[in-house]
Design brief:
The protein is an alpha/beta fold. It has twelve helices and 16 strands. The strands form four sheets. The chain has a seven-stranded mixed beta sheet with strand order 2-1-3-4-5-14-13, with helices on both faces. Strands 7-6-8-9 form a four-stranded parallel beta sheet, sandwiched between helices. A three-stranded antiparallel beta sheet has the order 10-15-16. The longest helix has 20 residues, at about 30-50.
């Protein structure tokens, strides 16, 4: 997909455009709703920057490429965007895809600010070319494990698909729970029917089932089966990766999709910028923006600041700017540093919440835990 930013914004800033490549999942099997939210945040920020005069009088032009959750396609997009002369790369939601994009960006020496992927090992070796906004998976999922323990859940079952991302999540949960007298039971959601999974869960002694699986399949049938099984009436269903954040979850499951705690990266209260951006995103889409949309906006806010202060034509200077970033984002002040065990420049840390949809009002979220 080849979608530059619209010309009216570019015309207001004037001058030769500064191109930024954006990697976004916009078609299946990508999580398209997350991709649309990410793109909405990116595009709103581009309009705001251009309306304010762009980068030293030059407009930002966003070159959007659909990754469709395909690592190979993402790597090819990075190659193409590098040839087109982008000043930097932005975006991506899926961790496995972002890892492929980061590896290629590192090899080609193109700065990449990852908007929304949390996989700890975003690159195999430490790199100065890649920075990331969302918390690393180990940070957020440890907070989720602490929430479970605080709520009285120490024996946890995971309904997991085979994936390096889900396996990493399971390992993080086990490492956090085991020293605190907790345990994790693994259920292969590909090998078990929803009914068989309920049988396994009922005999496991687990008081919580975490969905480490895609939406709508196989997550939706599993939720429905567990909700309807009287043996599992007291079992908490959780989704740490954030599936219930999006309206597609509520549309698929209705009341069954409420009271499913998940991670999101928003503050308890927005400052003026976050409030303004949230209002603008809501007005454009007619729905409440997800945390992913704010991640998209913050990505462009950071890149615009870096390109203004360090120039637009030297990728090495752009990458060298990560440790000097000091930007007021929609969710708080953004600065990058080297976090232990993380191979890229990392915002330590975006705010983390555990929330769920209120059973009494499923379009309203309840904050259950913060970290």
């Amino acid at each position: 997909m080849h979608t530059p930013s619209s010309s009216p914004e570019a015309a207001r800033a004037g001058g030769t455009p500064v191109r930024i490549g954006a990697l976004v999942p916009l078609t299946r099997p990508g999580w398209t709703e997350a991709g649309r939210h990410l793109l909405a945040g990116l595009e709103l920020a581009v309009r705001d920057v251009n309306d304010a005069g762009g980068i030293a009088g030059r407009p930002i032009e966003l070159l959007v490429r659909d990754t469709a959750a395909d690592p190979g396609r993402a790597a090819e997009a990075v190659d193409e965007l590098a040839r087109l002369g982008v000043a930097a790369l932005a975006g991506e939601y899926h961790s496995v895809v972002a890892r492929a994009a980061a590896a290629r960006a590192d090899a080609l020496r193109v700065p990449f600010l990852c908007s929304s992927a949390v996989f700890d090992a975003l690159t195999e070796q430490p790199t100065d070319w890649v920075a990331r906004l969302p918390p690393a998976q180990s940070h957020g999922w440890r907070i989720y494990a602490d929430f479970l323990l605080g709520a009285g859940h120490s024996r946890i079952a995971v309904a997991a698909e085979p994936s390096v991302y889900w396996a990493s999540g399971t390992r993080i949960l086990r490492d956090r729970l085991t020293p605190r007298a907790g345990s994790v039971v693994e259920l292969d959601v590909r090998a078990l029917t929803p009914a068989a999974l309920c049988d396994e869960l009922a005999g496991s002694g687990a008081t919580a089932l975490l969905l480490l699986a895609g939406h709508p399949e196989p997550a939706v049938p599993v939720v429905r089966a567990v909700r309807r099984d009287p043996r599992l009436a007291g079992v908490l269903i959780g989704a740490p990766a954030g599936q219930p954040e999006f309206t597609g979850w509520a549309a698929s499951l209705g009341e069954d999709g409420a009271a499913v705690p998940f991670l999101r990266y928003l503050p308890e209260r927005f400052g003026p910028l976050g409030a303004r951006v949230g209002t603008a995103l809501r007005e454009e889409s007619g729905a409440a923006p997800s945390f992913v949309a704010f991640e998209g906006y913050d990505t462009i806010a950071v890149l615009a600041d870096v390109l203004r202060s360090h120039g637009t034509d030297d990728r090495a200077r752009t990458a060298a700017a990560w440790p000097h970033v000091a930007v007021e984002g929609t969710r708080g002040p953004i600065r990058f540093s080297r976090a232990p065990g993380i191979s890229v420049w990392q915002w330590e840390w975006a705010p983390v919440q555990v929330v769920d949809r209120d059973p009494a009002q499923p379009d309203r979220f309840r904050i259950l835990h913060t970290g």
